[in-house]
Amino acid sequence: MDGRLPVEPMPRVWGGPGNGEKCDACDEKVEKSDLVVEGRTERGRVVFFHAKCFYVWEKERIVVAHERSTWEFERNKAGQPT
Ligand SMILES: [Zn+2]
Domain residue spans in the chain? Predict the structure, then answer.
């Protein structure tokens, strides 16, 4: 995870046979023999992943999102009047 990939949720993803798209996770071409996952983020960015890379990214994204929400929670808690 190098911070280049979106961590916001992707409301729409769909998959299909690859057609030479460049995978946003590993920068390799998605060959016709592979499955490509295409997604559009909430900010309208279109991303492509190998199906296997998508699952890796999805797992990492959830970890990052969880760390962020935990941080928000801690900050909110600290900011509350006692
Ligand atoms: Zn990939």
Answer: 12-77
SS3 of 12-62: the string is EEEEEECCCCECCCCCCECCCCCEEEEEECCCCCEEEEEHHHHHHHHHHHH
Position 6 confidence tier, pLDDT thresholds 50, 70, 90: low
In angstroms, what is the span from residue 30 Cα to ligand 1's centroid? 7
* 40 C-alpha to ligand 1 centroid (Å): 17
Residue 1: pLDDT band with limits 50, 70, 90: very low
- The predicted structure's pLDDT at residue 23: 95
pTM of structure: 0.68
**CA 74 / ligand 1 centre spacing (Å):** 35
